[in-house]
Amino acid sequence: MADMVSERYALSLYEVAQDEKQEKLYLDQLTEVCAAFDSEPDFLKMLTTPSIAVEDKQKVLKTVFEGRIEPFLLNFLMLVTDKGRIGLIHEMCQAYKEQYYFENGIVEV
């Protein structure tokens, strides 16, 4: 189930990126967001903690990422946080990357 959910969110994000002709930029920025979560695992843990209010989580996301990533990507992060899906961000990033590679005929070796 997590894979299907991640793929749906990633595909939705990819469609917006296509409309803006920013697919590669979104991939790069989404990868950077995941790298930030990897380097600070407590950051992602805080965002997935149910006892912390969604509004507080979104304020932290704005503080950390506003001006560093595209506004729509920031809104995407806030949406998946609101829906309780931010814990799937790495899977979403991978699904987005796979879609980007598929659309652009890129094969990893």
Salient structural properties:
mainly alpha, 6 helices, Peroxidase, domain 1
Can you characterise this structure?
The protein has 109 residues and is mainly α. It has a single domain, classed as N-terminal domain of the delta subunit of the F1F0-ATP synthase (Peroxidase, domain 1), CATH 1.10.520. Helix content is 75%, strand content 0%. It is built from six helices and no strands. The protein has helices at 2-19, 23-39, 41-48, 54-65, 71-82, 89-103. Helix 2 (23-39) runs antiparallel to helix 6 (89-103) and helix 4 (54-65) runs antiparallel to helix 5. The model has no long low-confidence stretch (mean pLDDT 96).
CATH homologous superfamily label: N-terminal domain of the delta subunit of the F1F0-ATP synthase
What level of helicity do the residues show?
over 70%
Discrete helix count: 6
Rough shape?
globular
Number of strands: 0
Strand and helix layout:
Elements: H1 2-19, H2 23-39, H3 41-48, H4 54-65, H5 71-82, H6 89-103
Overview in brief:
It contains six helices and no strands. The protein is mainly α and 109 residues long.
